[in-house]
Design a protein that fits this description.
mainly alpha; 5 helices
Length: 87
């Protein structure tokens, strides 16, 4: 969700998220929780999401989360990190 969308939603009344938005937020939460478990802290996980990753062709994990396919790639990469397989 873009910063502008977040600002609009904050300014609007407490309208519930639609199904797609809810799904994307849920997936982000799952990935953040996994990254926190793998990297040791939420601060480290948040920093990792913002940095280009060698195992993701120097793409930032947060950018990949914009699509379902990208989120799956990040999730698989975290699984490899968890077991010590970096490439």
């Amino acid at each position: 969700m873009s910063l502008r969308t977040i600002q609009r939603r904050k300014d609007a009344s407490m309208k519930p998220l639609n199904q797609e938005q809810s799904g994307r937020i849920w997936k982000f939460a799952e990935i953040l929780a996994k990254a926190t478990a793998v990297l040791g802290s939420q601060d480290q996980a948040e920093e990792w999401l913002q940095q280009p990753a060698m195992g993701l062709d120097q793409r930032r994990p947060i950018d990949l989360l914009a699509t379902q396919a990208g989120a799956e790639i990040v999730q698989e990469f975290l699984g490899r990190l968890e077991y010590g397989v970096y490439t």
